[in-house]
Amino acid sequence: MLTTTVCVALSAAGLAVALLTAYRRRFLAATRIAALALIPVGLAMAGLADLAGDIAAATADWAAGLVLKPSVWAGFAVLAVSAVLLVVTRIVGRRRGPSRRERRAAPAGERRGAVAPGAPAPALETGRAPGRVEPSGRSGERGGGDTGLEDFEDIEAILKKHGI
């Protein structure tokens, strides 16, 4: 009953403000204020104001029980310790790499990255992939008399282009 009375009083005050606004010939604002002023009466008539009060009371009871019970705080402490242990083991596991048992169990070839026994040794690379096109548009193979000055010419052209 008290909730309904408070809601009606709020709506009456809001409608009074809306009438004053309309008297000043601000009809659009007066209509908005009237629409907002009718909300408390509508909530009270639909029973939603009492429902909101019940929800607030239940939330307050739950929060009081949460704050005042030591067993709840002990539960939060256990959850925190669990989370810290999980994070620490993740970090330590990443730093260590494989364990000693895993390294011993792995064959010697896998540890060093060697090829299978009896396979020919890999050829040494010359530093260029076959068929690679250089930025200047020439292919990866150079003529025998090349001294590498063409690369410097490309760099010089780029510097001149930028005015350096």
Structural features, described:
There is one protein chain. Helices cover 69% and strands 0% of the residues. It is built from eight helices and no strands. It has helices spanning 2-23, 27-37, 39-46, 48-68, 70-96, 100-105, 108-112, 149-161. The protein is mainly α and 164 residues long. It starts with a helix and ends with a helix. The mean pLDDT is 80. Helix 1 packs antiparallel against helix 3.
Q: What is the H/E string?
A: HHHHHHHH
Percent strand: under 5%
Helix percentage: 55-70%
Query: Termini, distance in Å?
Result: 86 Å
Total of helices:
8
Largest sheet: none
Strands, count? 0
Low-confidence stretches: none
As a whole number of angstroms, the C-alpha radius of gyration is 40 Å
The overall pLDDT average reads: 80
> What spatial form do the alpha-carbon principal axes imply?
flat
Query: How does the helix and strand content classify structurally?
Result: mainly alpha
